[in-house]
Amino acid sequence: MLKLVRFLKGYWFKTVSGPFFKLVEAVFELITPLVVAWVIDTAIPKGQQGDYSALITGGVIIIALGVLGLGFSLTAQFFASRASLGFGTNLRRELYAHVNTFSYRELDLFSTPSLITRLTADINQTQQAVAMFIRLVTRAPFIIVGSIVMAMIIDLKLSLIFLAVAVVVGVILFIILTTTMPKYKAVQAKLDTVTLYTRENLSGARVVRAFGAEEREKRTFNAAADSLSRASIRVGALSALLNPLTYAVLNVAIIALLFFGGKQVYYGNLTQGEVIALVNYMMQILNALVVFANLLVIFTKASASAARINEVFAVQSSMTEGKGAAPLKDAPAIEFRNVSFYYANSPSPSLDNVNLTVQKGASIGVLGGTGSGKSALVSLIPRLYDVTSGEVRVFGVNVKDYSGAQLGSLIGMAPQKAVLFAGSVRDNMLWGKQDATDEEIQNALTISQSAEFVNAFPEKLDKQILQGGKNLSGGQRQRLTVARALVSDPAILILDDSSSALDFATDAKLRKALSAVREKTGLTTVTVSQRATTVRHCDLIVVMDEGRIAGLGTHEQLSESCEVYREICSSQNKEDDAQ
Known about the structure:
- The protein folds into 2 domains: 2-9 and 88-314, ABC transporter transmembrane region fold (Up-down Bundle), CATH 1.20.1560; 334-578, Rossmann fold, CATH 3.40.50.300.
- Helix content is 63%, strand content 11%.
- The protein has helices at residues 12-48, 53-99, 104-107, 112-136, 139-154, 159-203, 205-210, 214-240, 242-266, 272-314, 374-379, 404-410, 425-429, 438-447, 451-456, 474-487, 504-521, 532-535, 555-561, 563-572, 575-578; strands at 334-341, 351-358, 363-368, 389-394, 397-398, 411-414, 423-424, 464-465, 492-496, 524-529, 540-545, 548-553.
- The strands form 3 sheets. A 6-stranded mixed beta sheet has the order 6-9-10-3-11-12.
- The relative contact order is 0.08.
- Residues 575-579 have low confidence and may be disordered.
């Protein structure tokens, strides 16, 4: 938690003032038993004689102390609420911003459900701990110590009971908290698993139903939920021992206090009011220890959550943004120079010593089987990942030297998974260019073969798209992602298997439209596909096999010289079409 203290910036006054006001309220609470003792020993006997002035005075003092204590307590509560909410806001904003600095390599280290849990449940837990810290960190210990000191002032021998109680309860707290702390972290990890299954089943509901796997997925989810439930119950049962054990110890102490205190009253060493004051102080210790125990449980949970949050902060992006560079006019559009690439924690390379040159205005097709390195190859061009060795150049400049904005303006990409965001069609198109006009958007829609179905909507560009584009077909989503990439008018367009859901006629129209744009503007296109028909008309076809370039050339050249290419073609077409 100490590493997260910096997120209280801007709330230091409230963080410091809150405990101070609670401390003042605790002082009033410690004075109250003395006033009660005075009322019992002095005011009540006078009241029995017909003089109620002392009794009234004592009652007024007790009420005044209560009202003042309430005022200070409410003020502390207000400061605690403002500071904790500000802390949570700062932490959530900073953690989200930090996650957004990650390259794909760092994102691969954390699952999406885990990051969601850390951004929500874990931060909420630490936020609650901050609120409780401000409210109780000074009050509970001060009440405990103050009550022991006041008991010593009244009677030193009887105060030994207070010291014994503090030691016994302290041992109980230590044993239970050291046992539960690692278990709370395990509970949060199991919550990640439940979140994972929830997210997978909700996002993949159609697939689950298509395979009739509802019952199986229910069993899987129920098993994860039951595991979370059992772990939570076990740690909750251990934590729940705090209150009954504390109450048991303190009630025994009260019995001992009444027994020995009664003897002292009988012998005239104590007054009845002083015994009542000692009992009140013991009750204050009881309440403070119960609060303190619950506070430590909250801190234990928050400590586990803080450790998970700090794990994310500890991971720094391996990708540093370049200072900016100007593209070279006469340089090739794309160059791979002895490029090798490993995914995180992968023992074998996804790309191994790849060399490739793509000229401006060329159409490049990347073909290969599953796991051959196609997506890895094109992911290095817009610098979604950094190369392990070698270098990738765009227009003669190493991609590491470009700023993120520069590289984004040069390269448009339609990713393998068509991702659309909740909002209108226009909103999604503006991701490519924030100040794009409707004319520019319509032009991109026309090229991507999206204009026909978009303009058929009554709302046209204002048509609302559900999260993930769930109210569109797979082919429509893919075409809109292509349009989004085209809106920014990039110099290089990367289509990472982004026509797999299109029928052959629409795919052919898209290729023809892109060819016209390429001839007119000099656009360089890189098309990744598992269909030989999609890339066979490209100026250059790159055949990938196990992370290496197995063939390089036109369709005719590869049909003669590349065995891998012939096998792919023959598996998709008749043998004579492949020759």
